[in-house]
Give the backbone structure.
Amino acid sequence: MIKRQNEIKIRLTNKELETISKRAKGSGYAREHYIRTVLDGCIPRPSPPMDYHKMMNEFHAIGTNLNQIAQKAHLLGVIDAKRYDSAVQIFIETIRKIESFMLLPEKVNN
């Protein structure tokens, strides 16, 4: 665990404090974590809507079903395994891209 022993006290206007608080809350971060993330050169993304989580749960369920189908089909030898595996990999990569775009902070190019 990181021990943070240094403290910086800064003065902010009400508007500045409100802006930081609003952005931190919108991203689901504590203010301190939000500020550290910005200092690291990243801008936290707003928290995705609840529909996003429902959609991702459905994608994961579809992926599980595809995996079960593939296991049975491979066992029975009734599927083009290479083509199927390739399609599943594309599906998995698409889910990772969506998660990355929606959840990970965006790196700022200086």
Observations:
- Helices lie at 14-27, 31-39, 50-76, 81-103.
- Strands lie at 42-43, 106-107.
